[in-house]
């Protein structure tokens, strides 16, 4: 079995959970190697973590370019490493940036690309990826038929499993080539202290029915009682009630938690596209005709301002 | 200044979208339209052109006969002219092939700034702008929620997962804009009438020097093995809140071991 390169997504010197999921999936199709780019002094810790999750080798490259220029330095590095290692496949997390990096790497390797896989398994002619398409109404299995398969995988495709391996660090000097946009400044997102939306086991989302920015108070209180992330529909985001970084849907985040609670959300196709693969779906909406009820495992027809606080109180009571 | 906006003709997302027997998107079952996310690209291109004063906006699509509807819509919003790449051999092309066709068409059309949407609403890959930048050797300034031109420099704000970045690059460049970049205008009656007279240049693969075997299903570097309709979610329990709704919901969540 060949070497499967996993581009490790990290922020603030910490490995992000989707990278551990990729390493877990990579073991199904070959021998995982991690690629850690632009992590500075955190690289050693990140490499150790990648080793814990099955990376036999960890390629580490550093340089100001990774932070100062958009996308291209990562493409330079990943392509160079893939060629030198004779990689059997390249896996990248499906984020905006991850997909852009993966696509350009695929082109340079003269390979096909599959984006937004929700599952990955070994097949006769290479890895087989599952995509969930047309707002999750179809499951498509496909493979790359030319070159080194480059596949981007959505967060939450699999539960990360530790499987200690050597994690031997190999430092790489990258030749930077391409024409890139300059990153003039970067403002890190302020953490809400709540779980990351795409990684959370439970998501509580509010929509236009929440009525105002202050209305999100009842949504946040329920989320905090459950240890959940907070999401929002585009209507709520467009109204300025909640940050765009919390939008769930086609043009926001695509989430696939164990439990999704939609409050005051009608269930438009573009919203569904971001949450329909959730394991259990619950909705609170005062309109019994709201299309969201077609999706639910449990629904309450009622006013979210009475139902949510009652639920929160009950959750707190049960948790003691 | 030559601004070219790439737009895609897609099946309406609110329709019952399906696949044809050859695993490609069924374009018969559902009406098509200009991808709503590409309206934002057209809007920003028109704004940049208005601010610049001496700019021409061309809209470009690769798609079947009906894709003209998407071009007409963009022309009626205010674009000056259109390019339609249409050839039977394109049917079934994957994203690598599509990027090859579009980059050839762009070379033929000429450009200083290429504008794309953040993603199509059918394939939803969101990678075509990056592929165009790679093929044309241009900087990519993508996923912008704010964009401006200052002289020969394009500047923009990119809201990433972990951070917000201010980006800039010299022209020529490829940009893509998100649905946060500002509402797209509606075509006016005058715009709709004027669009009928605006020129639409047609190209086939020959005109662009693209070989038929580089594209289509046979030229694709990816292959679909199976397509399965997702089983409809089984209808759950829906209760009316008669004062105990929150408690009933809590009982359900406890039964499912969430609390
Ligand atoms: C290209 C494109 C991309 C899009 N991307 C996204 C996306 O990423 N995410 C997204 O969410 N949308 C997206 N949309 C928008 C989408 O089509 C809907 O407009 C949006 O999801 C509606 O949000 P909503 O459900 O909050 O609002 P509405 O549809 O207005 O629904 C509000 C609901 O709240 C209920 N309600 C009102 N008051 C109460 C109360 N007190 N208690 C309980 N219920 C109450 C109402 O009965 C109603 O069902 C996109 C649209 C397009 C065209
Ligand atoms: C459900 C589904 C899944 C698919 N998955 C894959 C896959 O994993 N790998 C693969 O190689 N192909 C895949 N395809 C095929 C791919 O969608 C097409 O090749 C398409 O031409 C380009 O991808 P996109 O629509 O996702 O574009 P995106 O990368 O999402 O488009 C971004 C922008 O590029 C411009 N653009 C896109 N298409 C055109 C066009 N035809 N004309 C002009 N401008 C355009 C627009 O500005 C658009 O906003 C898939 C198609 C479908 C329907």
TrEMBL record, chain A:
According to the lineage, what is the superkingdom?
Bacteria
Q: Does the keyword Transport apply?
A: yes
Gene3D superfamilies, alphabetized: HUPs (3.40.50.620), TPP-binding domain (3.40.50.1220)
Which residue positions does the secretion signal occupy?
none
Where would I find the Electron transfer flavoprotein alpha/beta-subunit N-terminal domain in this sequence? 4-187
Q: Which Pfam families does the entry mention?
A: ETF, ETF_alpha
Cofactor(s) the protein requires to work: FAD
Q: Which UniProt keywords apply?
A: Electron transport, FAD, Flavoprotein, Transport
Query: Which SMART domains does the record cross-reference, listed alphabetically?
Result: ETF (SM00893)
Query: Family, per the entry?
Result: Belongs to the ETF alpha-subunit/FixB family.
Instruction: State whether it acts alone or in a complex, and with which partners, per the record.
Output: Heterodimer of an alpha and a beta subunit.
What's this chain's function? The electron transfer flavoprotein serves as a specific electron acceptor for other dehydrogenases. It transfers the electrons to the main respiratory chain via ETF-ubiquinone oxidoreductase (ETF dehydrogenase).
Instruction: Supply the name of the protein.
Output: Electron transfer flavoprotein subunit alpha/FixB family protein
Identify the species of origin: Kitasatospora cystarginea
Q: What is the lineage of its organism?
A: Bacteria, Bacillati, Actinomycetota, Actinomycetes, Kitasatosporales
From TrEMBL, chain B:
Give the quaternary structure: Heterodimer of an alpha and a beta subunit.
Q: In which family does this protein belong, per the annotation?
A: Belongs to the ETF beta-subunit/FixA family.
The protein's name in its UniProt record:
Electron transfer flavoprotein subunit beta
Q: Which cofactor does it need?
A: FAD
- Annotated Gene3D superfamilies: HUPs (3.40.50.620)
Q: Which domain of life is it from?
A: Bacteria
Q: Which InterPro entries match?
A: ETF_a/b_N, ETF_b, ETF_beta_N, Rossmann-like_a/b/a_fold
Function in brief:
The electron transfer flavoprotein serves as a specific electron acceptor for other dehydrogenases. It transfers the electrons to the main respiratory chain via ETF-ubiquinone oxidoreductase (ETF dehydrogenase).
Q: Which UniProt keywords apply?
A: Electron transport, Transport
Q: Where is the Electron transfer flavoprotein alpha/beta-subunit N-terminal domain?
A: 22-212
Question: Record's Pfam families?
Answer: ETF
